[in-house]
Amino acid sequence: MGQGKARPAATAAEAQYAMDRMIAVAQFGQQDIARRLGINVTDLTCLGFLIEARTSGEALAAGGLAERARLTTGAVTGVLNRLEKAGYVRRVPDPGDRRRVTVVMEEAAEQRILEVYGPFYTRLGALFADYEPAEVAVLADWFGRATELFRESLDEIRDTGTATRPTPRT
């Protein structure tokens, strides 16, 4: 397991700067991964939600996917059309409610995705192994709480409905 290594001191500002850099690299990485998989970033994000639901044993309906991805149902219809065409998902009518459609990952789709993400997850696993279990617990707690803060902030940004525009130079 972890090595119990001494960690360099860091301020909250330094940690936030490091997080911002990680997010920037991850955003560009998601674009590259999506392109390699033959889809766009929104579609890739939706695939992530579908994998997450399947891993937890949950059947995800199209409306539930729209809610998680914060997309309109019309936009999710477009996502599902593209993902079906690319061979990642299929829509299955809900036997209990014919108006609902459950989205199911194609069996080969997850393997295609893991081929791309696998090396990265292997590296992350090695990085986490460099930390003590208590440190990993702190990281997991922080990521979970930060995700909720991001969601709250995005809700606030979306609720204002206006874009911030730069002031033109004169």
Q: Care to describe what's here?
A:
The chain has a three-stranded antiparallel sheet with strand order 1-3-2. Helix content is 66%, strand content 10%. It has helices spanning 12-37, 41-55, 62-69, 73-85, 107-129, 133-160, and strands at residues 60-61, 89-94, 97-105. A hairpin with a 2-residue loop joins strand 2 (89-94) and strand 3 (97-105). The chain starts with 11 loop residues before the first helix and ends in a 10-residue tail after the last helix. With 170 residues, it is mainly alpha-helical. The protein contains six helices and three strands, in the order ααβααββαα. Helix 2 (41-55) packs across helix 4 and helix 3 packs across helix 4.
Q: Name the overall outline.
A: globular
The strand line-up of the biggest sheet is: 1-3-2
Alpha plus pi helix count: 6
Structural class: mainly alpha
Q: Tell me about the biggest sheet?
A: 3 strands, antiparallel
Determine the N-to-C terminus distance: 59 Å
> Strand tally, please?
3
Mean pLDDT: 90
Q: Pick out the low-confidence regions.
A: none
- The amount of beta strand, in percent, is 5-15%
